[in-house]
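Figure 6 in text form: structure in, sequence out.
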């Protein structure tokens, strides 16, 4: 039996991955099972109606990323309905964010297609066995996680309160939001998972479930329709590869921007010659983030030729030239004793609030993520993949180690992964220290760029305005990492910023 190590967003999901491995599953089986449980048991944060990416890297093979991110809907409609049946809301989450919700904010949900494709191509177990942990948990109920409750305190009314099916799940008869730890049993969700397990992923797109999703959105004025669902395909792409010391890092390629920004920042951090995060090293980290973030906002977010713009960014980074100006997510990392690594990131955005009757499936608002869809509704061609911050990452070292890592956290995804990798690969921290160390993130505030940072980093040389967090915060992501070393075995680390779960299953 192949042994596995799992780092995921909860104990429930990590244990599900371990249980699937005990049945003979490999890293991909365990990662898909764990991620399905996260998407089932973290309502508000993610759901089955999400989009995402799966990066897989086996020994002796090039890394591959399966693209299952949300696509622009409206195929076959005489009027594409861009921006119809959608409205903007202001959330206080993370210091304040604007997003668009409603039927018209829903992109074609590709997450299940990507996981199904990965399972078929790289897994060992039958699909039904991979889905079963999520189905069983949905049937018996699960406690509302504290991370979900934290987000719902700011979003429940505005995002999830307008749809009757959605409201019923989160609010009691007195209109009170469910409390953290309270047991949830989402109507119809277990039945939906049973159909997906029995009939395959296809039922989510072309069967009864797919028809219910498409018809509900279309009949209420949104663009998503049966043709969008039927023609959606997960796409396999060669992963973007960048070096860091004796490691080779494989991550999400274009048209996503997460992998490109992560890759550029990793290349620029190679010149760091400090042994830890002193003031000069933190200044370099901030300068690198600032430069790459500006390039991303000025070029990548409005790109008409993403491949060329990504090449330009990586070329400048490889030459050590700082480029100048011109959700809600879950993540699972798994490695196995055969040297296979799998990293999965899934997102529903901030959530559309829409739940098609009889499905128990919350749908994404990926079209309405204003920080990603900067061109607005109608800019991208129908069927095109939306821009994504996701960067599920697998790395291999010259001595045979394999590391899977990633993070949720919107535009903090890449900076969280960057600091974990630099901490571990370049500064020599243990994997646990690398994940839990204080982080900094360059963000755009109301008055321009500034640095959000966690206490414990010396910021004296930083020239941008500062926003301090006195404690570790899930605002900076929830990274998880799992490593297989042929000499020493497994190491696994979950992020204390979120109640992460880790597990090791099987014997080597």
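Output sequence:
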């Amino acid at each position: 039996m192949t042994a596995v190590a799992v780092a995921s967003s909860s104990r429930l999901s990590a244990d599900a991955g371990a249980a699937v491995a005990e049945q003979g599953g490999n890293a991909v089986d365990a990662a898909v099972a764990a991620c399905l449980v996260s998407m089932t048991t973290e309502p508000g944060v993610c759901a089955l109606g999400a989009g995402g990416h799966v990066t897989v890297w086996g020994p002796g093979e090039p890394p591959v990323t399966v693209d299952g991110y949300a696509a622009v809907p409206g195929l076959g409609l005489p009027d594409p309905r861009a921006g119809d049946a959608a409205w903007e809301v202001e959330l206080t989450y993370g210091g304040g964010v604007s997003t668009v919700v409603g039927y018209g904010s829903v992109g074609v949900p590709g997450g299940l297609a990507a996981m199904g494709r990965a399972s078929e191509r790289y897994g060992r177990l039958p699909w039904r066995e991979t889905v079963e942990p999520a189905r069983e948990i949905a049937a018996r109920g699960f406690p509302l996680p504290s991370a979900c409750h934290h987000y719902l305190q700011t979003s429940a009314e505005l995002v999830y309160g307008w749809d009757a099916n959605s409201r019923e799940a989160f609010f009691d008869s007195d209109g009170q939001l469910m409390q953290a730890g309270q047991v949830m049993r989402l109507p119809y969700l277990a039945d939906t998972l049973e159909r997906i397990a029995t009939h395959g992923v296809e039922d989510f797109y072309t069967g009864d479930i797919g028809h219910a999703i498409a018809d509900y959105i279309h009949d209420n004025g949104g663009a998503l329709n049966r043709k969008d669902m039927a023609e959606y395909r997960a796409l396999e792409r060669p992963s973007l590869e960048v070096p860091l010391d004796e490691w080779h890092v494989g991550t999400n390629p274009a048209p996503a921007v997460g992998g490109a920004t992560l890759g550029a920042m990793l290349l620029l951090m190679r010149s760091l010659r400090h042994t830890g995060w002193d003031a000069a090293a933190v200044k370099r980290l901030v300068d690198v983030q600032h430069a790459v973030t500006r390039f991303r906002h000025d070029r990548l977010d409005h790109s008409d030729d993403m491949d060329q713009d990504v090449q330009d960014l990586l070329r400048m980074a490889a030459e050590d030239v700082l480029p100048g100006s011109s959700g809600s997510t879950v993540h699972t990392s798994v490695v196995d004793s055969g040297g296979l690594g799998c990293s999965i990131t899934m997102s529903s955005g901030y959530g559309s609030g829409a739940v098609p009757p009889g499905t128990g499936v919350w749908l994404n608002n990926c079209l309405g993520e204003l920080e990603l869809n900067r061109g607005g509704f109608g800019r991208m061609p129908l069927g095109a993949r939306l821009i994504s911050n996701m960067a599920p990452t697998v790395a291999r070292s010259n001595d045979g180690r394999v590391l899977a890592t990633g993070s949720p956290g919107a535009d903090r995804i890449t900076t969280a992964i960057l600091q974990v990798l630099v901490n571990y690969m370049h500064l020599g921290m243990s994997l646990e220290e690398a994940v839990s160390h204080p982080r900094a993130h360059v963000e755009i505030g109301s008055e321009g760029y500034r640095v959000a940072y966690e206490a414990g980093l010396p910021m004296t040389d930083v020239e941008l305005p500062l926003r301090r967090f006195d404690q570790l915060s899930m605002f900076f992501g929830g990274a998880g990492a799992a490593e297989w070393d042929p000499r020493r075995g497994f190491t696994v680390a979950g992020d204390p910023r979120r109640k992460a779960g880790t597990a090791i299953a099987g014997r080597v």
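Caption detail: The mean pLDDT is 92.
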